[in-house]
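Subject: two folds for Thursday's group meeting

Dear M.,

Sorry for the delay on this. The cluster queue was jammed most of the week, so I only got both jobs back this morning. I'm pasting them in the order they finished. Each block is the input sequence followed by the predicted structure tokens. Could you check whether the formatting survives your parser before we put anything on slides? The first protein is the one we discussed after the seminar.
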Amino acid sequence: MSTIDPPNFVAPDPFVLAVNVRAADIDDFGHVNNVVYLGWIARAAWAHSKALGFDFNAYREVDCGFVVTRHEIDYRIACPPETTVLVATWITANDGRLRLRRRFQICLQGTGATLAFAMSDFATVKISTGRACRMPTVFADGYPAYPALEPMFRGLP
């Protein structure tokens, strides 16, 4: 896990990625554009994957990787310019066959205010063909899921 001292996350022991808000992230409304959040959760997922020992070379070795099948983002408050956000992620489902789910909470560093919650569903695909494939054992074991955390994200205000 990361060494960042997190705000009050809704679930324990997240992997946390700190991201500095760039001028290019700000839209005409004066806050971070909603599309930027998608990039942040993708970066956090990859950073966590790498921390677990799975970079793209590891995917190539088994000719299998995860692709997104669904993203969902629930925005709470706008992210102001010239700030740092903490993107926390948890793996809440891994069926060991095809599917994996990540949950995210994006908070403003300093205040700890929650900016958004997000969810991404993934499926395994064979890199050489682009078709769905059974999850390698190394993924089933190497991406530990904590299904008991999933209810903590349902019905959030």
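Second protein, same layout:
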Amino acid sequence: MVKTELKVVNIVASTSLEHDIPLIKLAETLPNTEYNPEQFPGLVMRIKDPKTSALIFSSGKIVCTGARSLPKVKESIKKIIENIEKIKIKITIEPKINVQNMVASGSIGMDLNLNELAIKLQNTEYEPEQFPGLVYKLQGTRATFLLFSNGKIVCTGTKSEDKLNEALVKLVQNLEKITKKSKKPTKKKTTKKKTTRKKKK
């Protein structure tokens, strides 16, 4: 049985505060913000604890990145609202959080022959001269895996831990099918030795 390990390292989530936000005023008031409207319409707000970053738009839409769990996403959104309320804007709704993407990294506990996988798996991209990992889009899921020869993996594209774990199980099944086929022993031909009996004199 393959020993797998996969941990969520980043969650990208969005929400709406359903309230217009004066970004210039927010940038002028709070030191933990960056706002360059000529380059990008959103304001960047950095939260120290939990360590996350948020893109805030004037419409009240927020995209939060950096949290490693859903409770940390909720905690981060709460801190963002507290910061916004410092410029006398009252948020009265309970924001609905939508997970857009989960990024997880870990190991599947076995070495991988990436050249072989690139040939035998569907939906792969492998250009070792440019990047040492193989990109594998797992059919029937939203998951895309980065596979490395030492068994390290990165998964992106899923929206829940359940779907992430389902994708991991499916990945291991697909890899085991290929590794088992390539390890099948070839049958050796057995040659019978001729025995010669000496005639008694």
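Two things I noticed about the second structure. The longest strand covers residues 5-16. The helical segments are 23-29, 70-84, 114-120, 161-182.

Cheers,
T.
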